[in-house]
């Protein structure tokens, strides 16, 4: 069949689309920014089609649904203000487009929720979207899941970090509510199987794994599977869901905007009332995945660096870093309009461009940013406190980056390896042959737009490293912000430039720091300290360059 997948850059959609293609379906992925899919191998192969579209745009959704058989609706607006109205409007537009195009089946992934109680705003919104599709006139299957466990899922990350980082935890009352988690592999099995549901099926289906546990038991079970010492839990009856979300925001990579709906879904018991889906879609071969097995699989994927998608892969529709139509891009000439502040640094390197690129593409996450760690940490903490994403989102993969990846508080906007004019996009008009480029767009809370651009050009006997920080201020606050932080640029960007080059040279065994210095004077001592620091950075890059 021809399947339309919305939310293909998200956690679920990014795994479902290639599975549908592997099963022989034609897949049309509807994304707001098609460029985010250019580095994904499966998205470049038949029978996958990438089209630009937005669930809030009637024309684009009509075009996306034309000639299709099945529509998978996998988007929601949890982190946006007024999200319930946004989701309602988007669902109405999409349902109308599906009906007009003659779509034969809609599949929507919602959340399990109890009946007869007042739901949180987030759960109520998810239920409302399901009802809109069920009443649309297009046969709809609403699959309702509770906690989804898989490498990179927000629910799993919250469970993992709370358990790993807190040997003693203050536990609110909601951790004693029963939950029926389900492994991501089983969610994908039922979503893909819903393609073949009979045309007269128009209803909700609860989907859940074989275990019903309290969240407390889930944390204890995770600790056991992960080989952690037993965790101690101290009950605190006054820790409300809203207070809990602040705690999760501080302790885990999951920001408060995402933690709120996750915790709201645990305020009530979320256990499947039925499992009628098995009457239409046969259970997975070998049966449903147990909680402990799901945790083992997720931890193995993380340990082996095989995380396909991550909760941070889909950015909010109105992210703080989204440019306005009138805003210049980093590639625009100075006369494009508006004030643009830059911090530009260059440094020749004795290392080859390939080795230097391996260091550059491995920045962030556990390896850090090669300069002034306290400064980066402090800015990340401030961002988290004001509701931003902070530094703890980390990386999807320790060794590779692709366009659209979240990288701490940045988003990968361009990632070109040894390219030329044939690889250049409109936002990189001046790409030289053999040049490497990594451009990151900041998603932190700031009064303006910010980019960090790292370029490497091959040169005889080595390479040239060029680093450019760009800031487009908005209003007086934006100008003041730049000048307040400008004095720290020497520490942050200057140190970053020096240490990235030094790490590459040491990893390759080239450059002045690669040779030991046996002197005892102050200059020699300074050189050894600098070399030791660079050695530590080179160690971080060792696995990437084979040194």
Structure characteristics:
single chain, 547 residues, alpha/beta, 6-stranded antiparallel sheet, 15 helices, 19 strands, 35% helix, ComplexI_NDUFA9_subunit, SDR family oxidoreductase, NAD(P)-bd_dom_sf
Describe this structure in words.
With 547 residues, the protein is of the alpha/beta class. Helix content is 35%, strand content 19%. It is built from 15 helices and 19 strands. The strands form five sheets. It has a seven-stranded parallel beta sheet, with helices on both faces. It has a six-stranded antiparallel beta sheet with strand order 14-19-18-17-16-15. It is globular. The model is unreliable at 317-321, 332-337 and 519-523 (pLDDT under 50).
């Amino acid at each position: 069949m021809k399947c339309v997948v919305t939310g293909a850059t998200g956690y679920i959609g990014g795994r479902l689309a290639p599975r549908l293609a592997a099963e022989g379906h034609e897949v049309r992925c509807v994304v707001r920014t098609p460029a985010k899919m250019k580095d994904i191998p499966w998205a470049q192969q038949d029978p996958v089609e990438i089209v630009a579209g937005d669930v809030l745009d009637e024309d684009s959704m009509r075009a996306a649904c034309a000639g299709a058989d099945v529509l998978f609706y996998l988007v929601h607006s949890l982190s946006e203000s007024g999200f319930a109205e946004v989701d309602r409007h988007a669902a109405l537009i999409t349902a109308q487009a599906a009906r007009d195009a003659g779509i034969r089946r809609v599949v929507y992934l919602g959340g399990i929720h109890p009946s007869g109680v007042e739901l949180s705003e987030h759960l109520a919104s998810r239920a409302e979207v399901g009802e809109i599709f069920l009443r649309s006139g297009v046969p709809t299957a609403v699959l309702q899941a509770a906690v989804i466990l898989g490498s990179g899922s927000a629910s799993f990350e919250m469970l993992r970090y709370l358990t790993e980082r807190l040997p003693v935890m203050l536990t609110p009352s909601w951790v004693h509510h029963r939950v029926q988690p389900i492994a991501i592999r089983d969610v994908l099995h039922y979503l893909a199987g819903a393609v073949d549901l009979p045309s007269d099926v128009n209803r909700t289906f609860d989907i859940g794994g074989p275990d019903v546990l309290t969240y407390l038991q889930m944390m204890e079970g995770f600790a056991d599977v992960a080989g952690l010492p037993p965790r101690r839990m101290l009950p605190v009856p006054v820790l409300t869901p809203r207070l809990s979300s602040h705690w999760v925001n501080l302790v885990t990579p999951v920001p408060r905007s995402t933690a709120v709906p996750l915790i709201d879904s645990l305020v009530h018991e979320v256990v499947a009332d039925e499992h009628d889906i098995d009457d239409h879609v046969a259970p997975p071969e070998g049966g449903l995945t147990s909680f402990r097995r799901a945790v083992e699989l997720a931890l193995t994927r993380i340990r082996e660096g095989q995380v396909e998608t991550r909760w941070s892969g889909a950015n909010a529709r109105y992210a703080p870093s989204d440019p306005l139509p009138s805003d210049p891009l980093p590639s625009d000439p100075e006369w494009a309009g508006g004030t643009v502040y830059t911090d530009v640094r260059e440094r020749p390197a004795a290392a080859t461009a390939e080795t230097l690129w391996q260091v550059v593409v491995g920045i962030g996450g556990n390896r850090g940013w090669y300069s002034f760690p306290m400064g980066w940490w402090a800015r990340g903490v401030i961002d988290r406190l004001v509701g931003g994403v902070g530094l703890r989102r980390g990386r999807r993969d320790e060794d590779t980056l692709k366009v659209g990846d979240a990288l701490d508080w940045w988003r990968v906007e361009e990632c070109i390896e040894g390219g030329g004019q044939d690889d250049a996009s409109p936002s990189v008009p001046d790409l030289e042959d053999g040049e490497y480029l990594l451009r990151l767009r900041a998603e932190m809370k700031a009064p303006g737009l910010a980019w960090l651009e790292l370029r490497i050009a091959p040169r005889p006997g080595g390479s040239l490293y060029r680093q450019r920080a760009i800031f487009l201020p908005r209003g007086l606050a934006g100008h003041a912000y730049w000048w307040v932080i400008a004095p720290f640029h020497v520490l942050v960007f200057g140190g970053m430039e020096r240490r990235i080059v030094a790490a590459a040279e040491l990893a390759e065994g080239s450059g002045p720091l690669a040779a030991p210095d046996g002197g005892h004077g102050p200059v020699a001592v300074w050189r050894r300290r600098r070399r030791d620091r660079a050695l530590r950075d080179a160690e971080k890059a060792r696995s990437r360059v084979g040194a």
